[in-house]
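Subject: complex prediction, re-run

Hi both,

The earlier run crashed halfway through, so I resubmitted it with identical inputs.
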Amino acid sequence: MTTIACPVPLVTTDRVQLGHGSGGKMSAALVRERFLPHFHNDILAQLGDAAIVDVGGQTLAISTDTFVVQPLEFPGGNIGSLAVHGTVNDLAMMGARPCWLSAGFVLEEGLPLDVLDRVVLAMAEAARAAGVLLVAGDTKVVERGKADGIFINTTGVGLRPANFAPTPARAQPGDAVIVSGPIGRHGIAIMTAREGLAFEAEVTSDSASLTPLVHALRERVGDAVHTLRDPTRGGVASALNEIAATAGIGIVLEEHLLPIPGPVAAACEMLGFDPLYVANEGLLVAFVPEAQADDAVSALRSHPLGRAATRIGRCVRQHPGMVVLSTGIGGTRVVDMLPGDQLPRIC
Amino acid sequence: MRYLSEYRDPKLARALMAEIKRSATRRWVLMEVCGGQTHTIVKQGLDELLGEAVEMVHGPGCPVCVTPLEQIDKALALAARPDVIFTSFGDMLRVPGSDCDLLQVRARGGAVRIVYSPLDALELARRHPGNEVVFFAVGFETTAPANAMAVWRARELGIKNFSVLVSHVTVPPAMTALLESPDNRVQGFLAAGHVCTVMGWTEYEPVAAKYKVPIVVTGFEPLDILEGMLLAVRQLEEGRHEVENQYVRSVRRDGNQPAQDLVSQVFELVDRNWRGIGPIPRSGLGVRAEFADFDAERRFAVDGIHTAEPTICRAGDVLRGVLKPFDCPAFGTMCTPEHPLGAPMVSSEGACAAYYNYGRFRSAV
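This time it finished cleanly. Structure:
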C-alpha cells in the first residue's frame, strides 16, 4: 500500500536503528554510506544478489547471508532451512547452480539442544533437496543474553552456466513481470507466530529452494530470462523498485493480477500492512520478453513450487525508476520503497 | 475475502463514479474527516478519477498527525527513563519530536515496545512489576473506549505500575473549528464511520444545521466512500444539509452506549492543542481525577515540558484543507517520509504521506 526520488536519510540519527535492517531505504543508505566507500571494488559494485567472479573459464557466483529470525521455528520451516534457502536462492537469482555452502553458528548459552538438533536436521534436509554440499562450518557460543538463541551465517558458491546471465540491469521495456507463486506468506507466518496472532487459516512460510524453478525457466526460455529476483526482506515492492532503478525502466503492476492468498490479505488488513512489502522466502520474480511470457509461466507451473505462477505486470519506457500499480477500479498509485520497517497502523 | 471484496467491486465502483459525475452540476469541495478514508481515496486513486465532480480535502482525522509536539516530547522524555517501558501503536514511533523520535530513543537504550492494544500494555505491566509501563493513549473517539478499558481494568486488578500518556481528541470540535475559519472551503463532510460506531451521530446534527453543511457518516472501503460522496453531492445539489448514514452495517444513531459510558467514567473533556491547528477548547479527553494514579503526566511530572510548533511545516494549512500537500514548498524536498518535518508526512494515513506515497506519479507523467 503505500511511499522518493530523494534519498534523504534520517539525518538526525547517530545510532543504528532496526529500520537499518529492514531492506528499505534506510538499509540502502547504510550500505551506500557506511560500507561501500571502504569496500569498493568492481565486483562488489554490481550489488547483485550474488557476486559474479570469473575463474579459469568458469563463472562463479558467491553470496552470503545472516539469519536472525524469531521465532527460531515457525510454520513451514525453521532458521536452519531458511539459512540454506536464503543463500541458495541468492545464487539461483544470478542464474547459478548452487554447489557449496559454509555455515557459521552463533549459539546462545542455555539454548536447548533439541532445538539445535531440529534446526540442524532441517538445514541438512534443505541442503540435500537443493543439491548443495555443506563443506565448511564454524561455531561460537556467547553468554546468555548476548544473542537470541541461534544466529546463522551461510555463504554459498555456485557455478553459472554459459549463456545464462539474468541480472537486474537487463530488464527492459516490453518485458512481462512474472511471479512464481503467492505473495507474502513468509512474513505473515513469522509475524503471526511471533505476535501470537491467530487467524482463521494458518499461513505457512513459503521457504524453499528456487533452484528447480530457475532450471525449468532456463530449459524453456534460456537467456530470454532477463532478470530474476527473490523478493525477501522488503517484499515484492522493494525488489521491483530496485530493478526499476537499476535498469532505468518503469514497471506497471495490475492489482487484480496479484496472487495474494486470502489469509495473508486478511492478516495485512488487520495489521495495516501491505502484502507487497511482506517478505517471501520461496518466491521469484522473473522478467521475460512478452513473446516468451506464456512459455515462462507454463515452465514455472510445471513444477509444484510454481503451480500458481502468473503475470503481474509489465515494463514500460515511461516513469523510469518508478513502480506504479493500476488499482482494481481504474486508479493508479506509486508503489515506492518504504523508508524503514512497516509499522502497524493505529486504527 | 468476505466482507471486504464486496466493498471493492470494480463494476459497482464504476457505476457509482458515473452516478456522482451525473449528479454534480458543478465541482463540490468535500472533506473526508478520517485518515483511514484518506488512505483509501489516495490508494485507489479515487480523487483522480472523480476530480471533475468532487475535490476531496483531506481532514484532520489522523490521530498520529494531530498529536501535538508537546505530547510527543513528553513521550520521548518518559521513554528515555530507565524504569519505564513505553508502549505505543506502531506508527507513533516515527513521529518526530523536537530532537528525535521514539525509534531513536529505542536505539539509545530506551525500552519502547509496539503493542496492538492497550490491554497488551496492561499485561506487560502485570508481567514486569519492577517497571513502570506507560501506554501512549492517542486517537479519536474510536480508540478511547479500549484505552479507558485498560485504565479501568488496571484499577480493578490493582495494577499500580501502569499509566497512560493521553492525547485523545474528539471530532466535532475540530469540524466546528474548521467551519468557523474564515478561509474555509469545505462544503460537505464524510464523517468518520468508526468514530460514529462509538459515538453515533446525534452530535453532528446541530453542526449540519448551524453551518448548513451535509454530513454523511461514511465507511472506509472504496464503495463506502463513493456512496458517501454520492449522498453528499446529492444533498448539495438539492440544497439539503442533513446528517445521513452511509455506514449502516456498523453505525447506529446513538452509537455504542456501553463504550460511551466507559469513556466518560475514565475520561473528561479538556482543552487540547492540535498539531498544525492550535488549541481547540474542550476538544480532547483527559484522565479524570478519580483515576489520577493512572495518568502518566501526573505521575511523572512531565508537565514542565512545553514545546512550540515549528513554523516551516505548513501541516496546519494542509489539515485545514487550505493547502494541498503538493503546493507546500517543503513537500518532497525538505520533507519526505525519511525525514518528515511534520506529522502528516509520517503516518501512512497522513495527508502528506498519502500524496507522497501514491500521488508522485501524477506529477511525474
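The first strand of chain B starts at residue 28 and ends at 34.

- K.
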